[in-house]
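Lab meeting, item 3. Inverse folding demo.
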């Protein structure tokens, strides 16, 4: 190829890149493919073609050009990286490993996008290595399986971790690989914990503090202690609010021997952030963590609200001490009541049984429900697709009907006529919630607050949409906090009725089923401890990764409860026009995070209750055989299908025998 032709091709490639950068990937790829077809040795044309096809998603182009690609191009690390990514996109893991071989971090570090691709590939391949060893579980003994999983994944991921120098990217990898992959959440967190304690000595304080915060969030206390000791030996770490906040949580929940040290770091960090020359931080979370740490210190010192406003923090909550008239527990349900007929009585029965000892020892018990006028339950229609009915019928019946190729609810009616009519009728009559029905299902003396969604939208929801755009999760958070705050007026009614102040509260979602475990023991152990400003929450591993806490149920003393009651107004203050609250708080609007932030700043002591202690499930609407026993018995006679009639008869007999 002469020099004039080569220059001409370079110009053509530059034109293709300009077309790609303008957003027309399809045209750019077609033109580059034509160039590579006549000039397979042209490195830049080949590289740019791989970039546009691989980065746009799955494509067959790399396979086409690979057959004619010269050996010297195949050996180039950038080419190898993109081909490895191509094979990974198509699930060809062995090929991806082959092409990634020889692509060192040094060979891609001058191109940030390529460096990111390499890290992502290594993380993906580590995940596949776990999947592969999982498939060998029936062959290898369990202890060998664990060693194999850890060894393979650690070898691959250690490179990812050790080569990262950006604390935000470092956190992104840690969070993405665990929080966003809940199917292997605990195992992957274990792998990272083992690797993080082996971070090299040259690691910066902000990277180590990110690792420490992750270990605290995943409750890997031993490994967290190792990193804490390293950070405390680094003078610059006391200026880092990410470390200061995580150390306070570690001292409270992981190792109380660090309490004095955590308080010292909080004070030192707050002083440096308040100085005329505050330190700068690379981690984006540092700004909000700094405000949270300073607010917690101000709250501990009982400083006035204007001091909080001056630093852009949320307003404080100060509780007036009530006269001691004995323990009074307020139990409040919050959220939409979609399936009250099936859930409220079992919840009430469980709670009253668990709290019987509390009452027998002189405790007073009050109940309340704060919900919405619209139940939120979708009305079932005969013309609906069968899947809507399939999600509501007992699992054994759904499994049996899977072979019938049903397309609509109407198609199922001849097969399960009584069951279908029962569900159609239920959905028609449970759209609107009323107080008397709630009392009949939950507690006859319960205090009730029912509001409309239209009121919420006018009051706060429309403002949320103005700030964040259309976001159902954020609107639902606003709705949740609206109903939590509604318990303030119900508590006042409960106090007037009982003649004594509420001293403790249990807030619980109204859609929990299968509740079991010693909740009463947990409550009374905290009351007997004499501690103040505490809360117990369900342990939610996902929530902890985003600096949140479980919110399926919340057991608190009055000091923490008063803060919860302020949660809705605090949330509104974050997005109010002209607010003094720093906009950094807006990241806390996602589920679980606002709860933890307002209580952290309040100085509340957190206690998490494992699901192994208090069991529950979130009810999605699927009825059980026992709940539809009478309807199944009728369909054992009315079904148009003989095999189904026999099947229903056997279900009824089996259910009766186990009753």
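The presenter then showed the designed sequence:
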């Amino acid at each position: 190829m002469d020099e004039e032709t080569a220059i001409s091709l370079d110009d053509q490639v530059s034109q293709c890149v300009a077309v790609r950068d303008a957003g027309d990937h399809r045209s750019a790829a077609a033109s580059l493919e034509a160039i590579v077809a006549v000039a397979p040795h042209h490195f830049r044309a080949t590289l740019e073609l791989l970039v546009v096809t691989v980065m746009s998603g799955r494509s067959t182009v790399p396979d086409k050009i690979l057959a004619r690609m010269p050996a010297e191009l195949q050996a180039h690390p950038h080419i190898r990286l993109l081909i490895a990514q191509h094979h990974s996109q198509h699930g060809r893991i062995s090929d991806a490993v082959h092409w990634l071989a020889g692509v060192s971090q040094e060979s891609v570090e001058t191109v940030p996008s390529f460096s990111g691709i390499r890290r992502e590939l290594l993380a993906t391949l580590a995940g596949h290595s776990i999947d592969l060893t999982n498939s060998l579980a029936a062959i290898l003994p369990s202890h060998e399986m664990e060693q194999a999983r850890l060894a393979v994944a650690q070898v691959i991921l250690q490179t990812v971790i050790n080569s990262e120098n950006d604390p935000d990217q470092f956190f992104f990898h840690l969070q993405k690989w665990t929080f966003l992959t809940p199917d292997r959440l605990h195992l992957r967190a274990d792998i990272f914990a083992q690797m993080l304690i082996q971070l090299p000595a040259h690691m910066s304080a902000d990277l180590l503090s990110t690792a420490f915060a992750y270990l605290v969030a995943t409750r890997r206390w031993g490994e967290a202690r190792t990193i804490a000791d390293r950070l405390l030996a680094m003078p610059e770490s006391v200026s880092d609010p990410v470390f200061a906040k995580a150390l306070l949580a570690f001292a409270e929940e992981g190792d109380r021997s660090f309490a004095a040290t955590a308080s010292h770091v909080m004070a030192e960090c707050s002083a440096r952030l308040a100085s005329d020359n505050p330190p700068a931080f690379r981690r984006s979370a540092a700004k909000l963590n700094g405000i949270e740490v300073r607010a917690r210190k101000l709250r501990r010192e009982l400083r006035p609200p204007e001091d909080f406003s001056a630093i852009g923090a949320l307003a404080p909550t100060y509780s007036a001490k009530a006269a001691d008239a004995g323990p009074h527990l307020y139990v409040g349900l919050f959220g939409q009541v979609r399936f009250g007929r099936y859930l409220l009585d079992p919840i009430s029965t469980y709670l009253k049984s668990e709290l019987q000892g509390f009452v027998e020892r002189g405790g007073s018990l009050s109940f309340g429900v704060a919900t919405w006028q619209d139940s939120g339950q979708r009305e079932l229609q005969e013309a609906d697709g069968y899947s809507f009915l399939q999600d509501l019928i007992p699992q054994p019946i759904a499994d049996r009907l899977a072979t019938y190729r049903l397309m609509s609810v109407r198609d199922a009616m001849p097969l399960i006529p009584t069951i279908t009519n029962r569900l159609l009728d239920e959905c028609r009559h449970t759209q609107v919630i009323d107080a008397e029905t709630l009392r009949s299902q939950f507690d006859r003396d319960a205090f009730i607050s029912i509001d409309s969604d239209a009121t919420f939208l006018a009051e706060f929801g429309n403002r949320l949409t103005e700030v964040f755009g259309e976001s159902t999760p954020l609107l639902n958070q606003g709705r949740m906090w609206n109903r939590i705050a509604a318990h303030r007026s119900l508590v006042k009614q409960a106090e007037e009725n009982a003649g004594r102040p509420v001293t403790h509260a249990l807030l619980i979602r109204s859609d929990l089923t299968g509740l079991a475990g010693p909740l009463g023991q947990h409550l009374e152990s905290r009351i007997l401890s004499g501690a103040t400003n505490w809360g117990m929450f369900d342990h939610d591993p996902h929530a902890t990764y985003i600096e949140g806490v479980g919110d399926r149920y919340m057991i608190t003393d009055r000091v923490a409860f008063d803060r919860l009651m302020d949660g809705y107004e605090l949330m509104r203050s974050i997005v109010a026009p002209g607010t003094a609250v720093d906009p950094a708080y807006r990241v806390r609007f996602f589920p679980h995070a606002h709860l933890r932030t307002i209580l952290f700043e309040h100085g509340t002591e957190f206690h998490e209750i494992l699901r192994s202690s208090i069991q529950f499930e979130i009810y999605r609407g699927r009825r059980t055989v026992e709940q539809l026993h009478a309807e199944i018995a009728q369909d054992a006679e009315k079904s148009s299908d003989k095999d189904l009639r026999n099947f229903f008869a056997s279900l009824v007999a089996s259910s009766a025998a186990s009753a």
